[in-house]
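Retro notes, item 3 of 5
We never archived the inputs for the fe (ii) ion complex last cycle. Fixing that now. Sequence and ligand:
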Amino acid sequence: MESIANKLNVFLADLNVFFRKLQNYHWYIEGEDFFVIHEKLEEYYEEVYKQIDEVAEHLLMMNYEPLATMKSYLQNATLVETENKKIKKEEVFSVLVNDFTHLMQEAKDIKKQADEKQIVETSTFIDGMISDFNKKIWMLKQTME
Ligand SMILES: [Fe+2]
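Structure as it came back at the time:
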């Protein structure tokens, strides 16, 4: 079984790719509702930026080494990067629902393994992120109705 440290580092790599993707969309979004979506994407990437720091510092607190280079993030990430191109809101929303769902599944896997190994610190740490992703998925789906 993959170690919990590895899973946390893959999660960290994915959050970094996701951060870059959110700012990319913040810059490249065009069309209807530009003002609202441009702002919302900034709010999202600022939150992910904080989560990146929290995950890296959690790894350190558990005596593990967080990945900290762009190269290692790209090598370990399971989320797919985006391109340098203009994008419309329908595609942004659909990618965001998929990516938040992917991140939530990774967080749930980390929690499951932490519970099996009775690592309470990691199990409780990851709870906030599961709730956060779950709420964002719901809100994005409401927007897409
Ligand atoms: Fe900006």
